What we know:
Distance between the termini: 60 Å
Number of helices: 7
Number of strands: 9
Strand content: 25-35%
Largest sheet: 6 strands, mixed
Shape: elongated
Protein name: Lipoprotein
Strand order of the largest sheet: 1-7-6-4-2-3
Structural class: alpha+beta
Helix content: 25-40%
Amino acid sequence: MKRYLFIIVLAVLAGCAGTKVTEYTGTPRLLANSTILFLPTHGISDYKSQDLCGIARRLLKDNSQVLYLPEEEYNLTRAGMGKEEITKATMLDTGRLALICKKLQIRYIIGTEISSLRGGGSYGVYSEAELDPYNSTYNMDNESNSASLLFSIYDAQSGSVDSRFAVKTTINPLHIHDDGGGESRVNLTDQMTALTTAYEKGIKLIRKEMVSVK
């Protein structure tokens, strides 16, 4: 029992997460101390999307004001925009984004889109023969979780999406080798853990590259 608990603790502490950032249109260069509006992340629940925006608020709170589009519906409708016009806002509709920026008097809008989301198993046991790539069809990603997010940043000053980059996070399992040449693999995370990690990495990149104006 103690050995099993020890393995669980190791699995939590030693799970290997790797993140890759791909820049499509350059490094994000937002001005610090600006107001940034985040669009909902589609493909997940409203609650989880709001939770991700909460991460952005936490990581940017020292130098930016973060707004979330669903929370600004009242202010936008009061400013003359229809609810359907607000909820259908996407990063492809720069005309609508420009109108939202004008109504809220903000500089930037950030949209996030899930490119891929993959969940693996939490536990697997494999013999030496099963692990041999020449004798087995075993998939090395069986217990891995991964998520890819595309970040797009609209700048009201240029009237266009000036920065677009992708973040992919993969969380691999802990490998526990046995005396017979086989191994067990434990991964107590899930695909949403990978998604949250990728989102945090993306926001940290935005924060790191912000430009201060004196």
